[in-house]
Write a structure and sequence with these properties.
The chain is mainly beta. Helices cover about 15% and strands about 45% of the residues. The protein is built from five helices and 17 strands. The strands form three sheets. Strands 9, 10, 11, 12, 13, 14, 15 and 16 form an eight-stranded antiparallel beta sheet that branches. It has a seven-stranded antiparallel beta sheet with strand order 2-1-5-6-7-4-3. Strands 8-17 form a two-stranded antiparallel sheet. Strand 12 and strand 13 form a beta hairpin. Helix 1 packs across helix 5.
Length: about 290
């Protein structure tokens, strides 16, 4: 984490700029401790140990940002120490982050759909091999349950296989995306590291138009971690999961924040994403609606 991030304000320049534009700077300051250096408490360790699904944001060997699913039985995520997260197994062989390099910043979000709980953990990847990943924790904090669609626990769906790798969406990916009520968002900052977060809304809240994706930014904690990153670095990665078939659509590209939303009452902003790479794989994860 940079010295700027460790300053009293607790936020980097991009987060502060978005907070100012949204008029929530004073409110965000009351929650600034969430953005400060964090540890894995006993409570967060318990959530991690029970989780079956997490998502990681990192860069591949070519420097491209991706967001990838991590699936396992309870215990595959473990707080080995208050500042050390161990992830057993790592990403699938067909995933663009397979073989990711240690030493880079990564963002992880662990999510329990059934309990409607999520935990964000950001830090530096200190070890990566076929056995799993080790993350030195910089930040660790929970988010509210709002917009988490209740589902039964996640289960690995079998041996993953790649079915499409291209630069634009096909009709199949568009159908999955436009019917989704959940996706995961990966963003980056040049000095404050990478971040993975969950986004949810009514089915169809993500739209596809002329090959670009857009979604409303619903009210949240007003910290604007993701949007603050996008304000500084447009590199963005998305992950959509088909919880019935086990398919996953991963997109890497760029995003921009738009400050006008005309047809979504709750939202005052939207995000527009332009894909540069699209990867579709099968047999990643299955979660049954509760």
């Amino acid at each position: 984490m940079s010295e700027n991030r460790l300053a009293a304000v607790g936020f980097h320049s991009g987060e502060l700029a978005v907070q100012d534009r949204a008029g929530v700077r004073a409110y965000a300051q009351r929650l600034a401790s969430m953005a400060a250096r964090g540890r894995l408490s006993a409570g967060t360790a318990a959530l991690l140990s029970s989780a079956r699904l997490a998502v990681v944001t990192a860069r591949d060997g070519d420097g491209r940002l991706w967001t990838s699913p991590l699936v396992g039985q309870p215990g595959f995520l473990a707080a080995a120490a208050p500042t050390t997260l161990r992830i057993q197994g790592g990403v699938a062989d067909v995933d663009p982050l397979h073989g990711m390099l240690a030493g880079q910043p990564v963002g992880v979000v662990a999510i329990d759909f059934a309990a409607r709980r999520r935990l964000r953990v950001n830090g530096v990847l200190t070890h990566a091999d076929s056995a799993g990943l080790v993350l030195e924790v910089d930040q660790a904090y929970g988010n509210c349950p709002k917009y988490i669609e209740p589902r039964l626990p996640a289960m690995p769906a079998g041996s993953a296989a790649a079915v499409f790798d291209g630069s634009a969406l096909r009709p199949a990916e568009r159908v999955l995306i436009e019917g989704a009520d959940t996706f995961f968002l990966g963003t980056a900052h040049p000095t404050s590291g990478n971040d993975a977060s969950h986004r949810g809304g009514p089915a169809g809240f993500v739209r596809v138009d002329d090959g670009r994706l857009s979604w409303p930014d619903y009210p949240g904690n007003n910290l604007f971690n993701s949007l603050g990153n996008i304000a500084v670095d447009p590199a963005t990665a998305l992950l959509f999961l088909d919880f019935v078939t086990g398919a996953a659509v991963q997109l890497s590209g760029t995003a921009a924040l738009e400050w006008s939303v005309s047809d979504v009452q709750e939202a005052e902003r939207s995000v527009v994403f332009t894909p540069e790479r699209v990867l579709t794989t099968t047999n990643r994860i299955r979660v049954t609606a509760s």
